[in-house]
């Protein structure tokens, strides 16, 4: 069937071995009104379970709404890269296959998207925990009107956006040639970085649209996966540094937002390797530090000034580490830091 020339909302669902969750995810998209305005791309990332068959059933039952991209495994970013060039919705939103949307509120989001013309729409989320409890998280922004992005990008709600909160104008991402790093986890952080450089107008719809599942065994945000694959954060951040060098022109306010997000990620990485793992010679960290100095000297200097635990323990660990990875003073202070925290 030929694709409809334009939809209102494209939803991209990266999928790898999600047979236990995918049907629930896809059924949450079956809105009563304006279903034809949706375009759902299920990107099967080399699954070895029934995920592909589940997706195919939806493409047959809801032809013209649900579509399947079947590809070899390339991890999360490769799924975004496969779907974004073919997305035909005026807006695009990501949904993980083990999560779902609040169906009634998705319908209200689509209704809103039909009537507004902005670069970014922000909505709220619900965290669903496997022990059965739920937590709603709401942004603190003026709702129901178009907002100049320059005027709100200093707000904590915008600085701390999750990928679950955002819906972008598709054309912005396609025209900037947006791509995510492939073959690694945690690239969702890129989704709330470089695309923000294209945002001039925003709209906050105070509805809980996204339901984010937490506590599932094998989840990438789980402790065991995070510890085993923490270096993926470094690879992703290297990619963000490269993106920062080639961003489209944007205001100083938006640059400030992106620098804030980048500095926060860098602080996490340095803190993890130096203060938690005591891995002073980690090759990923050394490579990141060298790239940072070459690509973003101002950020490099800002990291050197960071205090990891102020005011209790005012030590600039990154600067000390750069001076000498193996200095006794550095090792002694890191040990003392561990005793105090």
From TrEMBL:
The yes or no answer to whether the keyword Glycosyltransferase is present is: yes
> Which UniProt key words apply to this protein?
Glycosyltransferase, Transferase
Recorded source organism is: Hoylesella marshii DSM 16973 = JCM 13450
Xref: Gene3D superfamilies: Spore Coat Polysaccharide Biosynthesis Protein SpsA, Chain A
Q: What class of enzyme is it?
A: transferase
Listed InterPro entries: Glyco_trans_2-like (IPR001173), Nucleotide-diphossugar_trans (IPR029044)
Family to which this protein belongs: Belongs to the glycosyltransferase 2 family.
Q: What is its EC number?
A: 2.4.-.-
In terms of superkingdom, the source organism counts as Bacteria
Q: Name one Pfam family in it.
A: Glycos_transf_2
Q: Where is the Glycosyltransferase 2-like domain?
A: 10-140
Q: Which GO terms describe its molecular function?
A: glycosyltransferase activity
Keyword check for Transferase: yes
Full protein name: Glycosyltransferase, group 2 family protein
């Amino acid at each position: 069937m030929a694709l409809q020339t334009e939809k209102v909302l494209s939803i991209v669902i990266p999928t790898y071995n999600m047979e236990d969750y995918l049907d629930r995810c896809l059924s949450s998209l079956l809105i009563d009104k304006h279903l034809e305005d949706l375009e759902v791309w299920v990107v099967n990332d080399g699954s070895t379970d029934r995920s592909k068959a589940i997706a195919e059933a939806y493409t047959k039952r809801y032809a013209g709404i649900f579509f399947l991209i079947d590809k070899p495994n390339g991890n999360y970013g490769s799924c975004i890269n496969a779907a974004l060039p073919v997305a035909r919705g005026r807006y695009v939103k990501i949904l993980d296959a083990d999560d779902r949307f609040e169906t009634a509120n998705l319908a209200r989001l689509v209704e809103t998207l039909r009537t507004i013309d902005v670069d970014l729409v922000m909505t709220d989320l619900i965290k669903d925990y496997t022990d059965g409890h739920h937590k709603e998280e709401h942004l603190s922004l003026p709702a129901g009107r178009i907002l100049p992005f320059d005027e709100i990008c200093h707000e904590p709600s915008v600085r701390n956006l999750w990928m679950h909160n955002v819906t972008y104008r598709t054309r912005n991402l396609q025209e900037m040639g947006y791509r995510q790093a492939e073959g690694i986890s945690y690239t969702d952080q890129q989704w709330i970085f470089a695309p923000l450089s294209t945002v001039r107008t925003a709209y906050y719809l105070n509805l809980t649209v996204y339901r984010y599942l937490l506590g599932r065994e094998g989840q990438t945000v789980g402790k065991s996966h995070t510890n085993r694959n923490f270096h993926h954060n470094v690879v992703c951040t290297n990619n963000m540094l490269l993106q920062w060098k080639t961003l489209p022109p944007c205001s100083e306010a938006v640059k400030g937002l992106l620098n804030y997000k980048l500095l926060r990620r860098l602080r996490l990485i340095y803190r993890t390797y130096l203060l938690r793992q005591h891995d002073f010679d980690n090759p990923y960290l050394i490579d990141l530090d060298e790239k940072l100095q070459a690509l973003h000297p101002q950020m490099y200097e800002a990291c050197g000034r960071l205090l990891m635990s102020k005011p209790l323990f005012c030590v600039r660990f990154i600067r000390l580490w750069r001076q000498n990875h193996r200095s006794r003073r550095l090792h002694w202070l890191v040990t003392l830091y561990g005793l105090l925290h």
